[in-house]
Amino acid sequence: MRRPAPGNVVTLGDGARIRIRSIEPGDRRTLEAGFERLGAESRYRRFFAPVSRLSEAQLTYLTDVDHHNHEALIALEEESGDGVGVARFVRIGGDVAEAAVVVVDDWQHRGVGAVLLDALADRAREEGIHTFAATVLASNTTAIAALSRLGVTETSRSGSEVDLSIALEGSRGAVPSLHRLLRHAAERTLHPSVSFWRRPEGSRSLPAGRRARSQGGNNGEPDSR
C-alpha cells in the first residue's frame, strides 16, 4: 500500500483555504459528517438513487483504499478541519479508471471540485492511469465541462445521461489546466458505477468502457463525504 501523501494547502478564489490529501481510514467520521451535509437533490444528482446513510462497511470501503487501484483525495477546510469534498478513482482495467467527485452543498460553486479533479488526475497519471471514464446527468453541464478540461474527451448520450471517456493530459500538474478548472468548479459529482462499490468475491473488474448502474436499496458504497 502506498503511503498517503501529505496535504497541500490551496487558496480558493474567495480566499478560503483548503487542504487536499489522500484519504485515510481515520477519516471515516469526517466522511460521514460530510455526507450529512448533502441535500436530497445533491444526493440524487450524485447517486441516481435515494441514499439516506452510509453503513460502517461502506465507510470502510471508502476510506481504506490502496492508493494505487483505488485512490481518494479529501479536501478539508483548513481552519475547522471539516471535510468539504472528495474525489476518487477506481481502476477498472489496465490504464482506465472510473472517476467521481463530490462537494458538500455549502461549498459548491467555489472551486473545490475543480481543484480536487486536477489533483486526482495528477495522482492517476502517477499510478499509470491515462483515461478517466465517467457518467453524469446530461443536465450537469458544470461537471461535464470540468471533466472535459482534463484532456481530450469523447462523449455519448443515453437518455438523461452522458458517458465520458477522458484521455488525461500527459503533463503532470499543468498550471494552465489548473487555472481553467478553478474557474469552472466541478461542484456536482459523477454517477458512481459498480467499481465504486465493494465487489462480491470472485467478481472481475469491468472492461474499459463498461459500467453498471447502482440500484436503490443495494449495498454499494456511494462516493460521498
Would you kindly provide a brief summary of this structure?
With 225 residues, the chain is an alpha+beta fold. The chain has helices spanning 28-36, 40-47, 56-63, 112-126, 141-148, 175-183; strands spanning 8-11, 17-22, 70-77, 83-93, 96-103, 131-137, 151-158, 161-168. The protein has one domain (8-195): Aminopeptidase (3-Layer(aba) Sandwich), CATH 3.40.630.
Please report the distance between the alpha carbons of the first and last residues.
23 Å
Number of helices: 6
- Uncertain stretches of 5 or more adjacent residues: 171-225
Number of β-strand runs: 8
Classification by helices and strands? alpha+beta
CATH architectural arrangement = 3-Layer(aba) Sandwich
Please give a structural write-up.
By secondary structure, the protein is of the alpha+beta class. The chain has one domain: Gcn5-related N-acetyltransferase (GNAT) (Aminopeptidase, 3-Layer(aba) Sandwich). The chain is 25% helix and 27% strand. It is built from six helices and eight strands. The chain has an eight-stranded mixed beta sheet, sandwiched between helices. Strand 3 (70-77) and strand 4 form a beta hairpin. The chain is globular. Mean pLDDT is 77; it is low at 171-225.
